[in-house]
Write a structure and sequence with these properties.
D-Maltodextrin-Binding Protein, domain 2; 6-stranded mixed β-sheet; alpha/beta; about 40% helix; 5-stranded mixed β-sheet; about 325 residues; globular
Length: about 325
Amino acid sequence: MPFQSRRRLLTSLCLSALVPLGHAQSQPAAWPAKPIRIVVAYPAGGVSDTVARALADKLAVQLGTAVVIENKAGASGSIGVDAVAKAAPDGYTLGFASISPLALNPHLGKSPFDPQKDIAPVISVMYSPVLLLGTPASKARDFRDLLATARAKPGEIRWTTSGPASLGHIMLEQIMASAQVQITHVPYKGGGQQMNDALGGQFEVLSTNAGPAVLQHVKSGKLKALAVGAPARLDSLPDVPTLAELGLPAANMSSLFGVYAPAQTPAAVLARLNAEFNKALAQPDIRNKLDATDNVPTGGTAAAFARQIALESENNARIIRSAGIQGN
């Protein structure tokens, strides 16, 4: 072979060998290649923050990278979720919040993000049951007795929630519509004052998320558990029926919490995150931590979580329209 021909052949082979290398260099680095941030949409120190930090610790070990928590509270969780919606869709910013910023808040006013276009659900983590509690001012023996009193004396029973257009308010409106009773809604702005007034008998009923402090008041007899919004009865209160058992399935709501990512996050990264969070939720110490606070671990696929959000959003929109509920 002539020298020039051999030279052209060698040059061609060398260039061909360089193509895969150049292609490989253009590919993104394997995920994760740097620390992951989880934005918790509530203040530090609460149950949701505690659970998020426990999951972050597990994820750090499983993925071999740091996982840090950043608290961004406000606007019933919308501020934290908005921070996730506006983050780079690279798998390094996640959010932890209830589904209310996606399924409830947008129906009550302008949302800073589009729940369907800006957020990718990753996994359902837990549901927090909602307890309906009788105070020292209530004479009701059980929930049916409470409804009987409400029918006999319209508007006399005072029922407090954490605020107007809150999940507790939505539940109350659904109960009144389904049971055809009239109950006076008393919205509060803070759980601390609400609990103090409940123990002092300033009203008859309050709705609040389950937790160790609430359970302690029930066990001591200061408050009476009348019903619970949850898919099933709580192990800690096995004699307390769910609203579904009491014939009010539409009002049988609980606070569902989960993990979110920015929309357009690569599908492979979302799938890996879902698998790693499911693995973490299966660990006995995580499940024990949730059980100790009366929160129930869930898990499952991202698609199932997205369907739950869509269904609750649809139900909330209907209830809000029917009851004429206005946002803050």
